[in-house]
Design goal:
The complex is a heterodimer of chains A (258) and B (648). Chain A is an alpha/beta fold and 258 residues long. Chain A is built from ten helices and ten strands.
């Protein structure tokens, strides 16, 4: 995969909740245009790490830069504008809105019309609306969710909701996509579909993807590099084959005996 | 405008070109929903797509008589590919989208396909898996590029690449396409349709242009179809019916074919298009009644009230229609009102608002079901056909619907019953045999002295006095009686169960018996309600089942079924059982299928009595209660013998 300059550097990040150390001096980088997986046992600090990148949590120390910009101090919406989109472990959608509206809502960072223009729905505003709808429809087509286009998101089954959430992240046209367990609670077929979508996004748009996932088989299949966390520390980093055979990783997952 | 001069229209591409000459870019030929909008394609656009693709296929080496496999959903590209292949003079081999690689391998290699169309990554991956086993196939052409960006196998080609080749060839030889179309002949094979045999490997039925053309020509005589008709193409194109309902009428009558956005959106898309003709298999119609009832129950009070108020009026009109009587002015007015308030909105909800002809096939629909849809103003007709008859055969005529029958032959088609009681269909629409299978062809196809091809359906049936075909059962499931006649237990049981008063039936007959009898178990709830309404006192199931009035009630149902049977298959005696068939007692399976062997043993005495001259039999059946205890019921069960004059 060609390198682009959408690189993320995580440098010495630590985070604690009271006496609990969630992240201890974690450093790694995500190269532009790669798929990086973060793995680790439960409570290893994976989601906390994503939350630090989004700035939902403020790290106690360390810094994160994206594309040369220091983002540690920026509020989440500014980070989104820089091109970092994410999905959550449990879909966080507007449950009362339809799929289309959820996706359109994510387009707001690309909308430029003023309030007056939108109310009057003049040419510019109309053009922009059509453009955004077109973009959303392409995502709907891409993720094969045409049949739930107008359905209320709250009533959709879990697997589909996760797909809509991925769609919403895509609607932001992100440079870096953070996926927090995109395949939890899915059956084998849904997981395979999701893996296919992730690979397609990567291939088609050269988006940098960072994902957290528990299903080792899938991680090893789709990730180019893997970072392993355990009790807040980075214990390994490398290509899937090396990680699979790394004694430190095996110990973290299976305990001392192995 | 490229137009071709053809004296006789005997192939589908020739018909298609006639429509192109007629409508050009002034009229829509095809629609498909994409990105949430119905995209329209005129006849001219459609023609250019087909021409480029057709010549592209020629560039890839496709020749007259070659076979091309297609696997993919119903998309405009699928139809274009189909017509492009036919334009070269090739034969389309449809494969169902859910086929696994080994099935694709069998059909593609048995049919000797030289090229293949595979819609998308999913289907292409199947072909890649079996690439080594398909040496004949020169290229696999895909039309959905999702996920195909990084495939570098030169075996895979995109639709556009092939069309690009075609455009080049068209520049070099601008007359080639017209020439290819003009060279086509009516007897050329245009479709090799593999039937999913329940036993053995699938067989490829060879269908010619004239098979389709004669069948659809006859159908159009009964049910005119014109260029304003909308059809939604959702049945798999690998299935012959979709060719008879969409592709052929598209070429012959210029109907507009609408393709759904995706297989999951078919219901929504039907509703948006509101097609003029709809075909669902029987099971889907049954589902639909359930859906309507559930939705009505979930609806508002006012909707429920209106539905309850007007449904009986719908039924009354339906009955008059079936009896061929005139509907009076007052009832007409009420029905008009009901249509306005209930029936039309309901049909519209289901996308059936504009349907002139609704078709069902497969299992027999109960008269109740037909009546229900007729009450909504839907003329539901039954069709009996198969792949080998190009999906036309017999059907109900709109003014001549008979519940028990599968209608009369349509004008291109003849029928007869062989000496073995097998239904034979003959005519121009009958296929030309199974590809590379002379043995199976000889079993299924014969040509009489007039040169008419006859297909031996393998189904048992008979023709009634009005010329209607009554379908009984698969021939192999018919049971022989001692007098050499055959009957179908499933047919009798199925038809008797159409009566609301009958819960279960076992029809009895075997090679050592000379007539048919039945063990009938009444529907306690419905019969009980009927008894209360008619002031007939009763205590228990046993008591109710043995009332003479109830015997009379059931007798009517039995006589009604006998009316639709050949005399050899008439039920001559029956008993009303003192209990219901019970899965707990192993009389039925958990899915309520009769366990015939067990029942024949268990009711052996009763069956013996049915074939003697007794008029009742004492039964003492051991009954297992649901808590595990056992009890004994002793009673006399009457045997009802149908009098000769009543039978005939």
């Amino acid at each position: 995969m060609t390198e682009n300059n959408n690189q993320l550097y995580v440098n010495g990040v630590s985070l604690s909740f009271g006496g609990t150390q969630a992240l201890i001096d974690v450093s790694f980088s995500v190269r532009g245009g790669e798929i990086l997986a973060i793995i680790g046992p439960n409570g290893a600090g994976k989601t906390s790490l994503l939350n630090c990148i989004n700035n939902f949590y403020k790290p106690d120390s360390g810094e994160i830069t994206f594309n040369g910009t220091q983002i540690t101090k920026l509020p989440p919406h500014k980070i989104a504008k820089l091109g970092i989109a994410r999905t959550f472990q449990h879909p966080a959608l507007y449950t009362g809105l339809s799929t289309v509206d959820n996706l359109l809502a994510a387009r707001h960072i690309h909308m430029h019309q003023t309030m007056v223009e939108s109310i009057l729905y003049w040419l510019g505003a109309q053009r922009e609306e059509v453009k955004n709808r077109r973009m959303v429809e392409e995502i709907i087509d891409f993720l094969e969710i045409e049949h739930v286009r107008k359905a209320t998101v709250g009533a959709l089954p879990y697997g589909l909701r996760k797909r809509v959430e991925l769609g919403r992240a895509l609607a932001m046209e992100p440079k870096l996509l953070l996926l927090d367990e995109p395949m939890t609670g899915m059956n084998v077929e849904e997981k395979e579909d999701m893996a296919r979508f992730i690979l397609d996004i990567h291939e088609l748009q050269d988006t940098t993807i960072m994902l957290i996932e528990h299903d080792m088989g899938l991680v090893m299949d789709i990730a180019e590099r893997v970072v392993v966390l355990d009790f807040g520390r980075k214990i390994a980093e490398g290509v899937p084959d090396d990680i699979r055979n790394d004694p430190v990783v095996i110990k973290a997952y299976l305990g001392q005996e192995e | 405008m490229d137009s071709i001069q053809t004296e006789i229209l005997d192939t589908l591409p020739k018909y298609f070109m006639e429509q192109v000459a007629k409508y050009g870019d002034k009229k829509v030929a095809i629609r498909q929903k994409e990105f949430g909008i119905w995209q329209e394609f005129t006849w001219q656009e459609s023609f250019e797509q087909i021409r480029d693709l057709c010549l592209g296929l020629v560039s890839l080496g496709l020749k007259r008589g070659d076979k091309v496999a297609i696997v993919g959903d119903n998309d405009r590209q699928h139809l274009w590919a189909d017509l492009a292949i036919m334009s070269v003079g090739g034969t389309t081999v449809g494969i169902f989208t859910d086929a696994i690689p080994s099935e694709i391998e069998y059909v593609a290699s048995h049919s000797e396909s030289v090229l293949a169309f595979a819609k998308d990554q999913e289907q292409c991956d199947k072909f890649l898996e079996i690439k080594d086993k398909l040496p004949r196939i020169k290229a696999v052409i895909y039309w959905d590029t999702h996920g195909m960006w990084n495939y570098d196998d030169p075996w895979m080609m995109s639709y556009e690449q092939v069309q690009e080749l075609g455009r080049k060839l068209n520049e070099e030889q601008p007359d080639l396409f017209d020439k290819l179309v003009a060279e086509g002949k009516g007897d050329d094979l245009c479709n090799l349709c593999y039937t999913s045999g329940t036993t053995g490997l699938p067989k490829g039925a060879m269908i010619s242009h004239l098979n389709f053309i004669s069948g659809v020509e006859a159908q159009i005589k009964l049910e005119p179809r014109d260029d304003t008709d909308n059809q939604v193409s959702f049945s798999p194109l690998a299935w012959i019916a979709e060719h008879t309902l969409s592709v052929t009428p598209h070429c012959m009558a210029g109907i507009i074919v609408n393709f759904p956005e995706s297989p999951e959106t078919v219901q929504q898309n039907i509703r948006e298009i509101a097609p003029d003709l709809i075909f669902f298999p029987a099971r889907l119609w049954e589902n639909l009644t359930a859906i309507i009832q559930i939705r009505i129950n979930d609806s508002t009070w006012i909707n429920r009230t209106l539905y309850k108020l007007f449904l009986p009026i719908g039924y009354r009109v339906a009955d008059l229609v079936y009896e061929g009587k005139k509907v009076g002015p007052f009832l007409s007015f009420l029905y008009w009102l009901g249509n306005l308030l209930v029936f039309k909105p309901l049909r519209s909800q289901l996308g059936l608002e504009r349907v002139r002809t609704a078709i069902t096939a497969g299992a027999a629909l109960s008269p109740d079901m037909l009546r229900y849809f007729q009450a909504f103003g839907l003329n539901l007709i039954q069709v009996f056909s198969s792949t080998e008859t190009a999906a036309v055969g017999t059907q109900h005529y709109l003014d001549d619907v008979k519940f028990a029958s599968v209608g009369k032959p349509i004008p291109c088609c003849q029928m007869k019953i062989s000496d073995e009681g097998e239904i034979w269909l003959g005519g121009e629409n009958i296929f030309h045999g199974y590809f590379k299978d002379p043995e199976k062809t000889a079993e299924a196809l014969s040509v009489d002295e007039d040169g008419v091809r006859w297909f031996h359906t393998g189904d048992a049936g008979y023709i009634d006095d009005d010329g209607h075909l009554i379908y009984l059962d698969r021939l192999v499931d018919m049971i022989e009686l001692s007098n050499g006649e055959h009957f179908s237990p499933q047919f009798i049981e199925g038809r008797l169960k159409f009566s609301p008063y009958i819960r279960d039936v076992m029809a009895v007959g075997s090679p050592d018996m000379d007539y048919v009898t039945a063990l009938i178990s009444i529907d306690f709830e419905n019969v009980g309600r009927w008894a209360e309404k008619n002031r007939i006192p009763y205590t228990t199931f046993v008591d109710l089942s043995q009332k003479p009035e109830i015997y009379q009630l059931i007798l009517e149902a039995v006589l009604h079924v006998n009316e639709n049977l050949p005399p050899s298959g008439w039920v001559k005696k029956f008993v009303l059982l003192h209990k219901e068939f019970d899965a707990d007692e192993a009389e039925m399976t958990r899915t309520r299928k009769l366990r015939r062997g067990f029942l024949t043993d268990r009711y052996g005495d009763m069956i013996d009595a049915l074939y003697s001259d007794k008029d009742s039999i004492k039964v003492s059946a051991v009954i297992q209660y649901q808590d595990g205890r056992e009890g004994v019921v002793e009673t006399d069960v009457h045997i009802m013998t149908l009098e000769e004059d009543k039978i005939s």
